[in-house]
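Worked problem 6 (solution included).
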Amino acid sequence: MTPLAKWTIVSVCLTALAVLVPWATYGDNDIELSRLPLWWTYAGAAAVMHACARIAPPVAAVFVVVEVVAAVVVATGYDQGSHVFDHVVPMVVPSPGAGVVFAVASAAAQGAGLRARARAARSVPA
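Solution. The predicted structure is:
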């Protein structure tokens, strides 16, 4: 198994964790990714990043950065309660969840795999 494949498996698992764990917490209310504004930007960037890893590494490298930016943009939208709740907004201070940490870790893992692939391609003797 190539280093890129190993890192891609780790990255996909971290992306799955990012989608499954809460991205914000309002008191006792956990807010999942799909309830946040612009959630689809993270999902799309992560999908393209994983899809391009093997067939187009330069595109995947660009989407590593795009995925991190999208995760941060989505994560900063958690404190806009009127965008998250359809009804009364709880009067508590919201806090970020673990989802964004897993999202950024996923991009870092994919970047490490792309770097390992580039190093392996340079070190092959002619």
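Discussion: Residues 3-22+31-84+95-116 form one domain.
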